[in-house]
From TrEMBL:
GO terms for biological process: midbody abscission. Pfam families: MIT, MIT_C. Residues 2-37 form the MIT domain. It comes from the Eukaryota. This is MITD1 protein. It comes from Balaeniceps rex. InterPro entries: MIT_dom, MIT_dom_sf, MIT_domain_contain_protein1, MITD1_C, MITD1_C_sf. SUPFAM superfamilies: MIT domain. GO terms for cellular component: midbody. Residues 83-230 form the MITD1 C-terminal phospholipase D-like domain. The gene is Mitd1.
Length: 237
């Protein structure tokens, strides 16, 4: 799998698809290093790791670039910008080895809030995961619990999404926190995406039959910032 991923990275590199090739280089090298460590051959492992580091250095010019926490990409979404659907934002990081996803977002709530369609947004995000190419088996959602009359609608909506995901072999693990503030999404391949507004960066559609109601790539966005990091430690302790 590591060799195939590196091969794919080279193909993407040759096609000038540098961002995608970077993701594949990182994952392929990580997979190959895991195999090297598993052999228990210290000398051979050192030579292999040195060779892989040399590949990184020769292509990207910084041998520390792939170290944990070194990678950082920032995307600025302007007010009313379009073309930032979930597939556009996340797809290059959702490679085939992704099987577990963590979503921390305090505002995954009911659909009748004045400016939020957060449950629908979360559902759309789950649909993207189900479509692949990743093989997601578990989604962990950490959010805050709605208060008042909206609580039952929030619980009902999340349980409906949970049941629907089961039909696709995906487990949705739901947890609530009264102190959650951070918004971030983590994949078990090491990629972490922080969005200033969480999943709710789309504006309310002008009407049920307006362009952008169904296709999020055509939906105007609120201004926000997206930060992408890489780290092997995706699950918070």
């Amino acid at each position: 799998a590591g060799a195939e991923t590196v091969k794919r990275a080279v193909e993407l590199d040759a096609a000038s698809r540098f961002q995608e090739s970077l993701v594949c280089y990182q994952e392929g090298i990580d997979l190959l290093l895991q195999v090297v460590k598993g052999t228990g051959r210290g000398g051979g492992g050192g030579r292999a790791r040195g060779g892989l580091t040399a590949v990184c250095y020769s292509r990207w010019g910084d041998e520390d670039f792939f170290s944990d926490g070194k990678y950082h990409k920032q995307i600025r979404i302007e007010e009313n910008a379009t073309g930032f659907g979930y597939e556009k934002l996340f797809q290059e990081y959702l490679t085939e080895i992704v099987s577990e996803v963590w979503v921390d977002d305090p505002y995954i709530r009911h659909v009748h809030q004045a400016s939020r369609y957060s449950l629908y947004n979360f559902l759309r995000f789950c649909e993207m995961l189900v479509k692949g190419p990743c093989k997601v088996k578990t989604i962990h959602l950490l959010t805050s619990c709605d208060e008042g009359s909206g609580r039952s609608q929030q619980i009902s909506g999340l349980e409906e999404i949970q049941q629907s995901l089961r039909n696709y072999g995906v487990t949705l693990d739901i947890a609530f926190s009264s102190s959650i503030h951070d918004r971030e999404i983590r994949f078990n391949n090491g990629w972490m995406i922080k969005i200033g507004r969480g999943l709710d960066y789309f504006k309310k559609p002008q009407g049920r039959f307006s362009i952008g109601y169904c296709d999020f790539d055509l939906r105007p966005c609120h201004e926000t910032t997206v930060d992408v990091f890489h780290t092997k430690h995706t699950k918070k302790m």
